[in-house]
């Protein structure tokens, strides 16, 4: 989904909002807190969204839009099918690494933001399926059932996103994605 047209000032404010929320979370912040910390008026914030909840959703969407672009750029620079899968999941891990646990917990507890994360997780799982299918088609991967491998990846990604893997393994989201990349590449390699 394309980003709305914003002035340079609004784009800067959105970047600063994303930096604040991803570092500190948002559940305990009021609109007054946001305005104070971002050194702007509430009216200026209302130009981005009509409520604190709307601001959070805009910030989460903006973060994942940029993360997706960065991940795809990394994949586009890679030709080998194994390296493409590894590059994709490693780049996802890199994009998740700067997110604070507080932010991720707040996203999990706020349904509109959680849906944005879940939608991005579904798209990422589909992209992994696609990369595996391309590798099988090119003969770089053994003839695996790509839908099954994709579903295993998707299930693991959902567990990462929901915090289940961290609870059971102690791995951060980024570390879990790195482990998933290693597991998938080794599972499909000839």
Describe the structure.
- With 190 residues, this protein is mostly helical.
- It has one domain: Tetracycline Repressor, domain 2 (Orthogonal Bundle), CATH 1.10.357.
- 76% of the residues lie in helices and 0% in strands.
- It has ten helices and no strands.
- Helix 5 runs antiparallel to helix 7, helix 5 packs antiparallel against helix 10 and helix 8 runs antiparallel to helix 10.
- The longest helix is centred in the middle third of the chain and has 27 residues.
- It is elongated.
- The model has no long low-confidence stretch (mean pLDDT 91).
Topology of this protein?
Blueprint: H1 8-24, H2 31-38, H3 42-46, H4 52-76, H5 81-96, H6 101-109, H7 111-137, H8 146-161, H9 164-169, H10 173-188
Helix pairs in contact: 1-4, 4-5, 4-7, 5-7, 5-10, 6-7, 7-8, 8-10
At a glance:
The protein is mostly helical.
Structural class: mainly alpha
Strand content: under 5%
Q: Classify the oligomer.
A: single chain
Taking pLDDT < 50 over at least 5 consecutive residues as the criterion, the unreliable ranges are none
Main attributes?
10 helices; transcription; Tetracycline Repressor, domain 2; mainly alpha; DNA-binding transcription factor activity; 190 residues; single chain
């Amino acid at each position: 989904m394309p980003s709305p047209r914003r002035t340079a000032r609004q784009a800067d404010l959105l970047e600063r909002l994303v930096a604040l929320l991803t570092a500190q979370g948002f559940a305990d912040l009021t609109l007054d807190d946001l305005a104070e910390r971002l050194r702007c008026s509430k009216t200026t914030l209302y130009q981005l969204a009509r409520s604190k909840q709307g601001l959070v959703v805009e910030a989460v969407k903006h973060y994942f839009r940029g993360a997706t672009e960065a991940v795809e750029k990394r994949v586009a620079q890679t030709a080998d099918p194994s390296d493409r899968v590894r590059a994709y999941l490693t780049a996802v891990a890199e994009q998740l690494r700067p997110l604070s646990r507080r932010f991720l917990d707040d996203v999990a507890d706020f349904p509109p933001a959680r849906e944005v994360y879940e939608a991005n997780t579904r798209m990422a799982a589909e992209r992994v399926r696609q990369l595996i299918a391309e590798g099988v088609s090119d003969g770089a991967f053994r003839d695996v059932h790509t839908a099954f491998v994709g579903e295993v990846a998707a299930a693991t990604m959902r567990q990462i996103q929901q915090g289940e893997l961290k609870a059971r393994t102690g791995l951060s989201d980024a570390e879990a994605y790195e482990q998933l990349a290693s597991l998938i590449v080794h599972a499909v390699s000839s």
